Task: structure prediction
Amino acid sequence: MKTLNIGILAHVDAGKTSLTERLLFDAGVLDHLGSVDRGDTQTDSLELERRRGITIRSAVASFVTGGTRITLIDTPGHSDFIAEVERALRVLDGAVLVVSAVEGVQAQTRVLMRTLRRLAIPTLIFVNKTDRAGARDQLGDIRAKLAPRAFAPHQTSPDELSELLADGDDAFLRSYVDDNVDAAARRAELARQVARGALHPVLSGSAITGDGVADLVTTMAELLPATERTGDGPLAATVFKIDRGRAGEKIAYARLYSGTLAARQRISFYRGETELTGRVSAVEVVGDDVALAGDVARVRGLREVRIGDRLGSPGAARDGVFAPPSLETVVRPVRPEQAAALFTALTRLSEEDPLIDVRRYGHDVSVRLYGEVQKEVLRSMLAEGAGIDVTFERTRTLYVEKPVARGEAVEELDPEQRLYFFATVGLRVEPGPGVAFGLSVELGSLPLAFHKAIEETVHRTLEQGLYGWEVLDIAVTLTHTAFFSPLSAAGDFRKMTPLVLMAALKVAGTRVHEPIHRFELEVPVPAVSAVLLKLAELRAVPGEPVTGTGTCTLHGTIPAAHVHEFEQALPALGQGEGVFLSEFCEYRPYPGPPPVRPRTGDNPLDRKEYLAQVARR
Result:
């Protein structure tokens, strides 16, 4: 049997969850057809999902057609939950991008298609809601805004299809010119070009009535590249989703690329360079209790597993394709006595969504966000799952710091001074790409455990720079070391390193940078002046306007802090017809007085306070 893992992607309200329900119902997996409007869909399992009619967590379900098992991954459509979409993209063989025949191509649809094309993920486009009043042909807009080589198979003659295929492949062009192309050759070449993301078939129908859905299933099975289900090779799998069972136990969703996975199997799994081990208690795959290559399996028993872990082998994980969140908010319990329980509950949620990134600020706790809707989701999940009612502070932008120059500092053990650490540490900091740690001392000058302690503490300390923000684009070099056997321990180096690192940073100096988004904006020509005034007010830098038939397109950059405000203002400014598309682009120096974030934990910037705090332990 072959397997095919398909992502269902769309802008919110395009009908993708309804399409998923229809596919499962028609395949006999569901005994009744759920409705988003009634709130009884099978793939929206969270109460908030059913209440609001949106998908928040990626839902996974499977059915069999012919000799292929198709696993559907219904992803969120709202941009606030783009992290869930990213995880789904890591495991897909292909995608179905849903476009509403009524609302047409939306800004978020263009973000998703841009990403699918960049990753060369084979994609079918399904125009949904053709039964609704106001439905119209979307093929022209799809070609203009999503995929220039999109085509409708049922509206394309064999000769037209041959010409389209010839445009995308020189070998097929030669065969076509030589009149050596038959229906089988056309079908094979079509499958090849779809598989490499060069062509995008456009189908249409209605998830509510079922019209066109059978054609979609047939096209998925025939044109998207399936994987032969086999147990060959060593185990290699990626965890892309974490759920919880009724007893609170972890359930990991893993995509297998090779090997087998079965109950009672002890395996290694990897998080970065860290190796962990665990015993699998149960494996669930449609129609089987052993997972093979190509399968998406529900795995129980791995207590320490997290999203992004690689099972079986430490192969490189695919980099994130969407930018990390650029916003954060402070969460507080309505009942102060629940503060500890709130931190525990958020930590547990962060295991299911690593981008939540829970941090303590004294008695406060902060989380990272993509947008305001996530606040409502967190509030609902904490109330329903942990019985904790919470309030949120106003959302703030996540800035970063970067070193301005070179700085060095050394702390040595002096028997004449009351220093509490049996360690000597010297560090040099300077601008550099990413966050790098290097040595200018002999590796054998310290026990390996002490070197590891210094390196790990450097990375942890850089989470809060001189102004409280994470430090990026920095090279840290270890310049001096000494230890005092048998008194020195790894803990001495862990305690000394923050003091030295922050002293070096003080010498070098840092500058706060703000996240900048690049944007694409389309508005009616009469609205251009008002839009440009608003962009200038928000410190945006637009490029030269490009005028088309009745519309004007602008490209430029805008500080992330002002993206939400512009999105809120655009409907009025753009006469209800503006389309705004933005994504993270870079960090730029903040133009005003540097914003400061309150520090959390020990403060190595205050030497006296730091030594007093650490000495008490």
